[in-house]
Amino acid sequence: MHGFVESEGSVVLAEKFKGNSIYFNNFVALILEVEIDNGIFMDGKILRRDFFMSGGVKFMITMALSNNIPFDCKWEFIA
């Protein structure tokens, strides 16, 4: 699944990362791992808001819904 979030929404989304969960299409999904475009993997719990404030950051998020089936969601933050 793909999603594009404007800069205002990215602030809210970054706050959700700090709790290791995110609202996605009316579901609360657990963030399993995040793949940054430079290949670095980071736990969603340690992601900070200032990381998302840089423009044009693209990364892949692996999440699991309540059924614990993981899926990839690519978010592109537009500053």
List keywords for this structure.
single chain, 79 residues, SH3 type barrels, six-stranded mixed β-sheet, disordered C terminus
Structure overview:
The protein has 79 residues and is α+β, with helices and mostly antiparallel strands. The chain has a single domain, classed as SH3 type barrels. It has 2 helices and 6 strands. Strands 1, 2, 3, 4, 5 and 6 form a 6-stranded mixed β-sheet that branches. A hairpin with a 4-residue loop joins β3 and β4.
Question: How is this structure best summarized?
Answer:
The protein is α+β, with helices and mostly antiparallel strands.
> How many H/I helices?
2
What is the level 1 CATH name?
A: Mainly Beta
Estimate percent helicity: 10-25%
What is the rounded distance between the termini? 21 Å
Mean pLDDT value = 42
Compute the number of structural domains. 1
Pairing-aware structural class of the strands and helices?
alpha+beta
| Topology, number of strands | 6
Query: The biggest beta sheet, please?
Result: 6 strands, mixed
Name the shape in a single word: globular
| Uncertain residue ranges | 1-79
Give me the CATH fold name.
SH3 type barrels
